[in-house]
Amino acid sequence: MGNLDIQNRFLEDLSVSADYEKVAAKYRPIFEKIAEGVVEREKNRILPYEQINLLKQAGFGALRVPVKFGGDGVSIPQLFQLLIELAKADSNIVQALRGHFAFVEDRLNAHKFESQELWFKRFVQGDLAGNAWTEIGQVKIGDVITRVTQKGNQLLVNGKKYYSTGTIFADWVDLFAYDETTDQHVIAAISRHASGVEVLDDWDGFGQRTTGSGTLTLNDVAIERDHILPFDQRFKYQTAFYQVFHLATLAGIAHAAVATFVHEVQKRDRIFSHGNADLVRNDPQILQVIGKASSQAYASESITIRTAEALQRAYISYFGESEVKNIQANNDAELESSQGQVVISELVLDLTSQLFNSLGASASTTAKQLDRFWRNARVVSSHNPLIYKEKVIGDWEVNREPLPFVWQIGASPKVGAA
């Protein structure tokens, strides 16, 4: 924790560090099982229900829950280190768990003022949370159609979300909505199994195809008042946390791509007449391709962990006594996660394309699904547009214009204006 001024009463309630190898040893056998079927799932678009259930049963969703409450108590850098390992096995599963770990992080922060033991217990017993924030179509930017209303003595939620990543596998839904009873934006923690909840597997992207990112429809779903959480109390480094999830996913994709192409090079027995060796594995130009890709994967992981350390400082500083230090830590987390996105996205997109230079045209066969690395990286990198991230980083560096901690997407007000 360094010299950060943490109030002693919070020490045992924080997740600051764990024995990484001990924790990882518990989950690595599951990662190996997950990796065994990844090509078949990719080829036939089979959702990983069984694989995610194995993680649930092992308590993976409680990685960040403090040891005091039955979790593993890992730090944020340790969480993302383990997620990189999982992403190497199947990047889709990491993205499917993105909403869950963000919801857990929010509850960890909320524990500062109000006990979250009930939620911690749910996470430890295996409950997962899905994500449902985005509305598509002609929803104007700044508007939220999903609403909480009151009918008699009952609070009800109605609406429709797309990109509901991971919700199809989950027990709870981290839902962004507008509460008409209090006139504020909220997070509604909806039971995935409640009456009126419908989840469709209709995501049609060319990459990350088994993340369960389809449509969520809510028709008069009952909710308790204590499951409605004011959005303005959401943990401050949430945007950076979501972004670093993508960085961990990309780093895992990079490592998986390098390992897979290395295996293909090692076993390849066809050579070109104008090549440089009697075996492809000894051709210096092929080795150069592999060497560069390996270095790019290394850099991607290193930058991801560096950005995760900034998140950890933001988490710890929230429980300190200095508001100034907390603001600075959150600014650092947002800036570093943005800078990491710009660099890692380009590194991984490049290496997943250039690796094909180590093989011949046979590498394009759909049986091997070698294109999945680029396809998945391209889709992950399409979140949070790079050009806008580069712009806000530059605006911060030159003009000290505040970074956008919260931003939205929606239909332009100019649409239909004519």
From TrEMBL:
Occurrences of domain Acyl-CoA dehydrogenase C-terminal (ranges): 248-384
A GO term from the CC aspect: cytoplasm
Any GO BP annotation: fatty acid beta-oxidation using acyl-CoA dehydrogenase
Record key words, sorted: Monooxygenase, Oxidoreductase
Source domain of life: Bacteria
Gene Ontology MF annotations: acyl-CoA dehydrogenase activity; flavin adenine dinucleotide binding; oxidoreductase activity, acting on paired donors, with incorporation or reduction of molecular oxygen, reduced flavin or flavoprotein as one donor, and incorporation of one atom of oxygen
Stretches assigned to the Acyl-CoA dehydrogenase/oxidase N-terminal domain: 32-104
Keyword Oxidoreductase: yes
UniProt family annotation: Belongs to the HpaH/HsaA monooxygenase family.
Protein's name according to its UniProt entry: Monooxygenase
